[in-house]
Known about the structure:
Elements: E1 2-3, H1 14-18, H2 21-30, E2 34-36, E3 41-44, H3 47-53, E4 59-60, H4 82-89, H5 99-110, H6 113-118, H7 120-136, E5 139-141, H8 142-147, H9 149-159, H10 169-177, H11 186-212, H12 218-224, H13 235-266, H14 268-276, H15 281-291, E6 297-302, E7 306-308, E8 311-313, E9 318-322, H16 323-326, H17 361-378, E10 383-384, E11 403-405
Parallel strand pairs: 1-2, 3-9
Antiparallel strand pairs: 2-3, 4-6, 5-11, 6-9, 7-8, 10-11
Helix pairs in contact: 4-11, 4-13, 5-12, 7-17, 9-13, 10-11, 10-13, 11-13, 13-15, 13-17, 15-17
Amino acid sequence: MAAADDLAFDPWDPAFVSDPYPAYAELRERGRVTYYEPTDQWLVPRHADVSALLRDRRLGRTYQHRFTHEDFGRTAPPPEHESFHTLNDHGMLDLEPPDHTRIRRLVSKAFTPRTVEQLKPYVSQLAGELVDGLVAKGGGDLLTDVAEPLPVAVIAEMLGIPESDRAPLRPWSADICGMYELSPSEETAAKAVRASDEFSEYLRELIAARRKNPGDDLISGMIAAHDEDDVRLTEQELISTAVLLLNAGHEATVNSTVNGWWALFRNPDQLAALRADHSLIPSAVEELMRYDTPLQLFERWVLDEIEIDGTTIPRGAEIAMLFGSANHDPAVFTAPDRLDLTRTDNPHISFSAGIHYCIGAPLARIELVASMGALLEKAPTLRLAAEPERKPNFVIRGLEGLSVEVG
């Protein structure tokens, strides 16, 4: 085990947030696990370990299915944060079996591969319309003009949220996702609580309306879904799942799009190769998600003592798996710091792994392929107009905007 006292790893340092990959290389060289005192976490930087731990049932996204806060040596969240935790703790992302298994199975009955595949024409058409708008203006902000509206509209369409109700979705999502950063401030928590209350109330009314008049949308499908014992999702599970699908259904896609194009602008040889051969789009999407990972860190609680490379990590500890580091591990990826859109052996873990593998990964891929294809076809001269500013967040990695010109 290495100590982190003299490491460049510092999630609150703008220089580190701008480019964390050299610090990750240092962490991987130090060893397989490093204790990081500022967050009281064990950092795991290597691909093999991250991949294995994501599947290790001695770890969990929650511990409350087995322990009380006191038994686990942890402090309960403050009562004023209850709205956020009620919303968050009833979604698949933060549940463990048997609840996770039951909810994921029921959601999967509505969120089928066939359902996702049927969205392709709609996604392609919408991506084309958004890019047409960008081209007509001669450019703009790729984030607000294309990257954001596409996945938000798609998941809202799937859920059955009317177009007139969609404006608050992205702000609600951004405020809730602020709580996934390391050591969020009280201001961040207050925004998340407010967004949780407002979003939950909106969905409660929408679910009530769908119970009376079901449609062919995802919320109606989840209301109707049941198992062989006629067990259904509770109202809170429906609300939490809808919020999770919206948040996860666009946060990663938005950031993958702008991070990806920013990487292409910084690697003009790769952008030129892509423009010359659009058949590279699917492998380019995978490589860009690996190269600048949209979700840099994912946490797990140690439910039963484990050992990593001779270091015992006790029950009650928290492990931080560094996805961004794992995706740049030279033990797995040849020349990992080089952007290579032809990379075929690309076992990146940007969609996680194990029972918490992203249920929306097929949809995200469809959206990313569609937006990239539309931009390459309709805006072949797309170029950077101004150096972008990196968001201060570490865990969810993105840009404040990406100013581009066309023509």
